[in-house]
Amino acid sequence: MLVSSEEELINDLLNFDSENIINQNIKKYISILKHYYKFKEYNILLNSLSIKEIEENDCKDSINNNDYITKLQLKFNNNFSNEIFLAPINFFIEEDFQTNFDIDINKMAVPMFHVHLVKGKIRDDFIYVITGEEKGYIKDFINRVQLLDKKIKNLIEKYIRNIQPTSPIYNLLKKNNVTETNNWIYNGIINGSENNFMHINFEKSSFEEDIDGTPIYIGNKQFYELTDVLSLNSYCFINSYIYPIFKLKDIIVTEKIKKNNKTIVSFRSKAYFPEIYIKQGSLSYSTEVH
Q1: CA–CA distances in Å: residue 278 to residues 106, 109, 187, 204, 275
Q2: pLDDT tens, 96-134?
Q3: Strand, helix or coil at 253?
Q4: DSSP conformational letter for 120
Q5: Contact status, residue 186 vs residue 153, Cβ threshold 8 Å
Q6: In this structure, are residues 114 and 288 in contact, taking their beta carbons and an 8 Å threshold?
Q7: Strand, helix or coil at 259?
Q8: Which contiguous run of DSSP H or E holds residue 57?
Q9: pLDDT confidence of 207, banded at 50, 70, 90?
Q10: Do the beta carbons of residue 248 and residue 270 sit within 8 Å?
């Protein structure tokens, strides 16, 4: 009985710590998101965005090591950090007419899925399929993501138009005859043939590279088993309701070969979960290929 009691006590302490971490994170995200909750303030934020070149940015993709990528970064011309957070947030008025904000992870979770291995390549994203029937804070959130994608695409067009020989992608663009309107594509956070797939990525854990990976929580508990599953290089399928929060700072630039063997340059906004919050009782996953 003593061992059982000790185990229960340790589990209670771990759950208490996880709950505290989640509550602290939610408070932090509310404090960030409320500053640009109004669309006027959000547009001011978007208008302060520019593209920053970073040094030593040619590297292998950490997910698929055979793919070489170049990174450009977003930059804010104000006091905001050099990454943007977006997530659903609720605005309400209290009984004393004071305005306030809250985040309810379970109510704001949306159905997302992940396929870990596609055509021999590891995927590191969860996908939400936009239905067009979203309402309230989810609809507002999607509108903000669409505005962000549009702004970044405009920034890329401007960057290509004013490209300088010192740019880390100058040779890549010249090699592929990239102009403001030709031989490049932009894959936003929302993309797909009907612009209805929203992608949010996770950091894959790696013991060899000492990477912890994106923390995953179900309810008030951290779920290490799923982190371990996502660290593997084998097939798995995950379906769940997840709170769609992301941070974005990097634009990934790669050379792509199209079906007609023509090469183009791809620009991709790669948004990451800071943590993955899964609605209690909604998780379904399998490691068997059907």
Answers
A1: 8, 7, 26, 17, 10
A2: 788 899 999 999 999 999 999 888 889 999 999 999 999
A3: strand
A4: T
A5: yes
A6: no
A7: coil
A8: strand 49-60
A9: low
A10: yes
Each residue of 138-188: pLDDT tens digit?
A: 999 999 999 999 999 999 999 999 999 999 999 999 999 999 999 999 999
The residue among 273, 274, 267 whose CA lies nearest residue 69 is 267
Beta-ladder partners of 278? 218, 242
The average pLDDT across 62-83 equals 68
As a whole number of angstroms, the distance between CA 71 and CA 55 comes to 9
User: Please, which residues have CB within 8 angstroms of residue 251's CB and are 6 or more apart in sequence?
Assistant: 51, 71, 72, 73, 74, 152, 156, 267, 268, 269, 270
Model pTM above 0.85: yes
Distance CA 14, CA 60 (A): 36
Contacts 24+ apart (CB under 8 A), 46-50: 46/147, 46/148, 46/151, 48/76, 48/77, 48/78, 48/80, 49/74, 49/75, 49/76, 49/77, 49/84, 49/151, 49/152, 49/155, 50/74, 50/75, 50/76, 50/77, 50/155
The structure tokens listed for 259 are: 């079906």
Which of 25, 125, 105, 123 is closest to 282 using CA atoms? 105
Distance CA 35, CA 57 (A): 31
CA atoms within 13 A on the CB side of 185: 14
Expressed in percent and rounded to 5, the helix, strand and coil fractions of the chain are 30, 35, 35
